C-alpha cells in the first residue's frame, strides 16, 4: 500500500480584501508532497507561490486575507481546521520554514544564539545548556565557522550568506518532517546560492525531510527537485515528476519557462523571456489566464477555465492542447507544435 503523502493540499484558495475590493490570489491549488520528496514550486513573480506557502502555514494576515481549502493534510492532521495554537506548535516544530528575506525574518535585536535556542526550548523541554549545545551543533552543520562565538553575534554582524545559513539552522532545529523554503537563496550571489543549495540537499539526504522549494529557476528545479508544480496567476498550470516535465512539458507556460533558462537551452548567452506579463488580479481573463501571452492559444482557450488533463503518471496540465504538446515533445527535433 502506498504511504499517505506528508502534505496533501486540496482546493486551496486565498483571497485578499482591500480598498479596491476582493482579489483571488490563489485559486484551487492542489498538490501532494510525499515523505522525503523535494517538490519545486515555480512561476513568475506574483504567481502566488509565497501566498500558497503562507496560507498552508496559517501566516497570512487574518484582517485582510481569507484562506479556504477542502483539506490541507499534514502528517495526519487537517491544517485547514487547526487552531492557532496547534499551528504555532507545528511552525518551527514539525514544519520548518525559510523565507525570502533573511534580514526581515531574523530579529535584529536578538543574538543569533537566542534565536536558535528559543524555538528548541519551546518545542522540546530541554535545558538551556542542552539547547545551546544543539545550537552550536546546528551552526556547525550549516557551515558557520567559530560557531560558539557566532552564538553571541547579532544578525547585522553576519554576511547575507551567513544569515541565510542561520535561517536554515533555525528551520532545522526541531528536525522538521517538512521544510517550506521560499526562495532561500535569491537574495544572494550566484556562488553562495549554489553552496547553500548544496547544503540543503546534503541535509535533506541525511534527514530525509520533505521540502517544498519555491524558486524562479528551472535550473534549480532540474538540480534539486523530484516533482514540480508550475503556478501561473494563482493557479496550477502543470505538475508532475521533474523528468517527465522536462522531457515532455504539457503546458506552453512550462515550455516558455524552460526556454528562458540558459542552463537548459544549451545556449547560456541567449536570454529569452516570455513576452507580456501576468494579468492583474483585478482583471483576470475569463478562460486560460496564460492565453493572452500564449503562441498556441485558440478561441476555445478564452472560453473557460481549462481542465487539468492527465498526460502521464502523476503528470497533468491545465492546457486544452496538452496531449498535442506532450506528443510533439516525443517526436524528433523540428516536429514540435
Ligand atoms: N498581503 C497581501 N495583500 C494583498 N495582496 C497580496 C498580499 N500578498 C500577496 N499579494 C498578491 O498576491 C499575488 C501573489 O503573490 P505572491 O507573493 O504569492 O507571489 P510569488 O509567486 O511569491 O512572487 P515572487 O516570485 O515575486 O516572490 C500577487 O499579485 C501579490 O500582489
Ligand atoms: Mg514569493
From TrEMBL:
<dbReference type="InterPro" id="IPR050388">
    <property type="entry name" value="ABC_Ni/Peptide_Import"/>
</dbReference>
<comment type="similarity">
    <text>Belongs to the ABC transporter superfamily.</text>
</comment>
<feature type="domain" description="ABC transporter">
    <location>
        <begin position="7"/>
        <end position="258"/>
    </location>
</feature>
<dbReference type="GO" id="GO:0005524">
    <property type="term" value="F:ATP binding"/>
</dbReference>
<keyword id="KW-0813">Transport</keyword>
<dbReference type="InterPro" id="IPR003439">
    <property type="entry name" value="ABC_transporter-like_ATP-bd"/>
</dbReference>
<keyword id="KW-0067">ATP-binding</keyword>
<dbReference type="InterPro" id="IPR003593">
    <property type="entry name" value="AAA+_ATPase"/>
</dbReference>
<dbReference type="InterPro" id="IPR013563">
    <property type="entry name" value="Oligopep_ABC_C"/>
</dbReference>
<protein>
    <submittedName>
        <fullName>Peptide ABC transporter ATPase</fullName>
    </submittedName>
</protein>
<dbReference type="GO" id="GO:0055085">
    <property type="term" value="P:transmembrane transport"/>
</dbReference>
<dbReference type="InterPro" id="IPR027417">
    <property type="entry name" value="P-loop_NTPase"/>
</dbReference>
<keyword id="KW-0472">Membrane</keyword>
<dbReference type="GO" id="GO:0015833">
    <property type="term" value="P:peptide transport"/>
</dbReference>
<dbReference type="Pfam" id="PF00005">
    <property type="entry name" value="ABC_tran"/>
</dbReference>
<keyword id="KW-1003">Cell membrane</keyword>
<dbReference type="GO" id="GO:0005886">
    <property type="term" value="C:plasma membrane"/>
</dbReference>
<dbReference type="InterPro" id="IPR017871">
    <property type="entry name" value="ABC_transporter-like_CS"/>
</dbReference>
<dbReference type="Pfam" id="PF08352">
    <property type="entry name" value="oligo_HPY"/>
</dbReference>
<keyword id="KW-0547">Nucleotide-binding</keyword>
<dbReference type="GO" id="GO:0016887">
    <property type="term" value="F:ATP hydrolysis activity"/>
</dbReference>
Amino acid at each position: 500500500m502506498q504511504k499517505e503523502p506528508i502534505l496533501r493540499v486540496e482546493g486551496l484558495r486565498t483571497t485578499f480584501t482591500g480598498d479596491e475590493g476582493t482579489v483571488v490570489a490563489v485559486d484551487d491549488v492542489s498538490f501532494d508532497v510525499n515523505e522525503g520528496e523535494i517538490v519545486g514550486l515555480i512561476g513568475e513573480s506574483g504567481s502566488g507561490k509565497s501566498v500558497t506557502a503562507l496560507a498552508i502555514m496559517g501566516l497570512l494576515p487574518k484582517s485582510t486575507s481569507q484562506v479556504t481549502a477542502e483539506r490541507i493534510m499534514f502528517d495526519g492532521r487537517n491544517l485547514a481546521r487547526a487552531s492557532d495554537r496547534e499551528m504555532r506548535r507545528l511552525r518551527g516544530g514539525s514544519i520548518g520554514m525559510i523565507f525570502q528575506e533573511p534580514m526581515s525574518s531574523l530579529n535584529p535585536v536578538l543574538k543569533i544564539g537566542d534565536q536558535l535556542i528559543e524555538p528548541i526550548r519551546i518545542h522540546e523541554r530541554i535545558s538551556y545548556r542542552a539547547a545551546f549545545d544543539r545550537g552550536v551543533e546546528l551552526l556547525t552543520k550549516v557551515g558557520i565557522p567559530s560557531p560558539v562565538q557566532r552564538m553571541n553575534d547579532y544578525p547585522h554582524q553576519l554576511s547575507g550568506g551567513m544569515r541565510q545559513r542561520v535561517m536554515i539552522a533555525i528551520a532545522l532545529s526541531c528536525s522538521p518532517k517538512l521544510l517550506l523554503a521560499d526562495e532561500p537563496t535569491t537574495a544572494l550571489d550566484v556562488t553562495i546560492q549554489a553552496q547553500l543549495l548544496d547544503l540543503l540537499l546534503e541535509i535533506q539526504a541525511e534527514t530525509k525531510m520533505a521540502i517544498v522549494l519555491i524558486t524562479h529557476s528551472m535550473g534549480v528545479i532540474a538540480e534539486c527537485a523530484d516533482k514540480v508544480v508550475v503556478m501561473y496567476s494563482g493557479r496550477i498550470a502543470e505538475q508532475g515528476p521533474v523528468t517527465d516535465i522536462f522531457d515532455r512539458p504539457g503546458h506552453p507556460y512550462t515550455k516558455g519557462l524552460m526556454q528562458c533558462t540558459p542552463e537548459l537551452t544549451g545556449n547560456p548567452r541567449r536570454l529569452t523571456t516570455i513576452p507580456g506579463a501576468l494579468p492583474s488580479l483585478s482583471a483576470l481573463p475569463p478562460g486560460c489566464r496564460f492565453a493572452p501571452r500564449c503562441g498556441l492559444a485558440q478561441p476555445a482557450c478564452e472560453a473557460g477555465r481549462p481542465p487539468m488533463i492527465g498526460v502521464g503518471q502523476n503528470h497533468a496540465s491545465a492546457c486544452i492542447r496538452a496531449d498535442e504538446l506532450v506528443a510533439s515533445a516525443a517526436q524528433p527535433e523540428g516536429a514540435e507544435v
